[in-house]
Structure formats: C-alpha cells, structure tokens
Design brief:
- With 377 residues, the chain is of the alpha/beta class.
- Helices cover 35% and strands 27% of the residues.
- The strands form 4 sheets. A 7-stranded mixed β-sheet has the order 5-4-13-14-15-12-16, with helices on both faces. It has a 6-stranded mixed β-sheet with strand order 7-2-1-11-18-17, sandwiched between helices. It has a 3-stranded antiparallel β-sheet with strand order 8-9-10.
- The chain is globular, with a radius of gyration of 21 Å.
- 44% of the residues are buried.
C-alpha cells in the first residue's frame, strides 16, 4: 500500500475482535474500510477472554488499554474439586495459566469488542445485520454480493469471521480440510449464582469430563462450562440445540457435586453455545486478494487461552505488512511474521488440556498431584 495514492477499498467480514482491530490499523494506513457483521450490533456479553503478552502492547498502541484495565475481571481464585466435591487445591489462576500479574488482562468479551468498536467506528463503515453472499476475484479486485442485497467491488477482502468462517469456506474450501478435532465437546451458558461465588472459578473433574462455574465478579449469574471427551465430533448435533442438550445430559448423567443443578440450568438456558474443541490449521492464510486472520485462519482452541491475543497480534501485523507493499508481498510478509508464533501456540494445546480436562484416571491423578505441589491440599 502506498499512501501517496488513493487508499485501497477493503472489506473486513466479522466485527468481533480480529475484524475491528484490523479495520483500525488499515484505516491508519490510509485504507477505505468497510466492516460487515451478520449480527445486528456489536455483540455484548460473552465469557471472559485473555489479552496477554504482545497483545497488551497492541491495545496500548490503539489507545484502549486504560479502558480495558478498568474492565479487568481480576479473577482471584481457581479451585479444583474431586468427583465428590471435596477440594483438591485452591490457587491463584496465574499459578496454573502462567499469566503475568499486573500486566495481562482478563475481560468480558463484550467489553473488549465494545472498546474496539468505539476506537474505530468514526473512521470506517460498519454494515450490521448483513453478510457476504458471494466473492468473485478478478485481476482488478474482488466483486462482492451481500445477503442483504447489493454488490460492491473491493481491492482486498479479509475474513475475520471466526472458527466456522464462511469466507474461508468460500475461498479455500470446506472447513473439514482445516479442522483439527481435539477430542472434546463443550457447552457454555449462564446460570444463577446459587453458590455465592465471586471473582473465582470452581472446576470439577472426572476422567474425560469437566464442569466449571466461573464468577466474573459478584454477579447474580455465573458462566457454566460443561466439557466432555468424545472420540468423534457429533456432527449431527451442530445446529440442533435439543441434540446438544441431550448429548451433555447423557455425558454427565451420573455426575455428582452440583452437576445435576448445572444440567437443569442447561435445559432452561437461552444462551447456550455448543461446539467441538478444535483448531484451524491451514498451509496458507491468503489466496489472491483475500486473506484470513484470527480464528478464521488459525483458531488455537480455548485450551490455549491465546485465541484473542493471536487475533489482536495478527491484525496488527497484517496491516503493518501491507503498508508500502502490494497485496502479494504484504500477505507473504504477514505469514512470515506471525506463523511461527501461531504454530508454537497451537502446539501447546496439550498443556491446557492436561490441566483442565484429563482424559484418563491416571492423567487426572497426576494432574491433582501437580496441583497439590503448587500449594493445594
């Protein structure tokens, strides 16, 4: 990109984290940016996410670090439980996650997306309640038609539309080519805070199963997580809320502690998010004038705790790589500059799985021994 000539017209699909972050930086480099988002507005709520390491530098450069510091969750305790509910260990979360106290951030996803949107909304065009229908690349640009009607031509298109990216499917092929299933499924939803939890997470395990309650503050509701091992992804349940609830109920049918109450809340919840624990691994993140970033390009899975940070870092490097270069050179520089970090992060997924979701009785006991060694009982 050369700022002495009229800026490229670019389309970013997705307005969660990677999309608005990329829009911010592309706008700073002189691009005319449009962001399309299928939701009717920036999505609020959601479970907390981590902003770590170099990603903290990125949000500081964007000028939103003070706002995010004010929104920091400040999780103070992570308690691990035996199958009967007895305590194994109660630790500061960073003893398990390796986070840096005083620097790394944990914030509600909605607080982050709102901060990103506020930082960029006056400089770019947002099209809410719409999405890309077709993409047709030519030598001169990308012809885009929208599901809401109308069409436009852009110089570049970026897919920041998440793990199940439609942009990726349209340009690179079916998700199955790049989807790496990690052997678990999960459901997350909100439920009443009947235990009076505050600034803490309580995690119950048996081999291959985990139930967690996450209290962001001292709110009346908590985030509930149910995770269970399954040899193959339950394709028949994706898109079928009733089948998802049935799968979870069957997986935890004989569970103790407060799990029956969690299952009852799952039955009544209207905000259930169900998916496979998985990664996206691609040999290339660009094709012609279209590039992917964030989870659309390289979802590391929530087991790494790094998906949000990778999205912020990738957006910064992608825009920087394109500055002063044509798209072919820029996309190549983007991959050279970020792929090693992405690969190393994805390869560490076993560390998170081992700590949170041991699959065998032996693995669970070894995990518990390590926890006791960190100061637990």
């Amino acid at each position: 990109m050369n700022r002495t000539t009229p800026g490229p017209r670019v389309l970013v699909s997705g307005a969660s984290v990677a999309g608005p972050a990329l829009a911010y930086w592309l706008s700073r480099h002189g691009c005319a940016v449009t962001v399309v988002e299928k939701a009717p507005a920036v999505r609020s709520g959601g479970y907390p996410v981590d902003v770590r390491g170099p990603a903290v530098d990125v949000v500081e450069k964007m000028g939103i670090l003070p706002r995010l510091r004010d929104a920091h969750v400040d999780l103070r305790r992570l308690t691990f439980l035996h199958p009967d509910g007895a305590e194994i260990a109660s630790l500061h979360p960073h003893a398990v996650t390796g986070g840096a106290t005083g620097r790394d951030l944990e914030i509600r996803r909605g607080d982050l997306t709102e901060a990103l949107y506020t930082a960029v909304r006056d400089d770019v065009e947002f099209l809410f309640d719409d999405s890309v229908d077709t993409l047709d690349q030519t030598v001169h640009g990308v012809d885009v038609t929208f599901r809401g009607g109308g069409s436009r031509t852009f110089d570049l298109v970026f897919g920041a539309d998440g793990m199940h990216s439609r942009t990726r499917e349209t340009v690179f092929g079916p998700e199955e080519r790049f989807h790496r299933y990690l052997g678990h499924c999960f459901a997350v939803f909100t439920m009443p805070n009947t235990l009076g939890l505050a600034h803490e997470t309580v995690l119950w395990n048996t081999p291959g199963r985990a139930a967690a309650l996450y209290a962001v503050g001292d709110d009346a509701a908590v985030h509930a997580f149910l995770t269970f091992a399954r040899p193959e992804p339950p394709h028949e349940a994706f898109g079928d809320p009733r089948a998802q609830r049935t799968l979870a109920a069957e997986a935890f049918a004989d569970a103790g502690w407060k799990v029956p109450d969690i299952l009852a809340a799952l039955h009544d919840a209207d905000d259930v998010f169900f998916d496979a624990v998985a990664q996206i691994r691609m040999p290339r993140w660009s094709h012609g004038r279209v590039a992917l970033l964030g989870d659309a390009a390289h979802a590391p899975s929530f087991l790494t705790g790094q998906g949000t940070s990778l999205a912020l870092i990738g957006a910064y490097h992608l825009a920087r790589s394109l500055a002063g270069r044509d798209h072919t050179e820029g996309f190549a520089a983007y991959e050279r500059g970020t792929r090693d970090l992405v690969t190393r992060t994805q390869d560490r997924v076993g560390e998170g799985a081992g700590a949170l979701f041991p699959v065998t009785a032996r693995d669970l006991e070894r995990r518990n021994e390590r926890l006791r060694g960190l100061g637990g009982r």
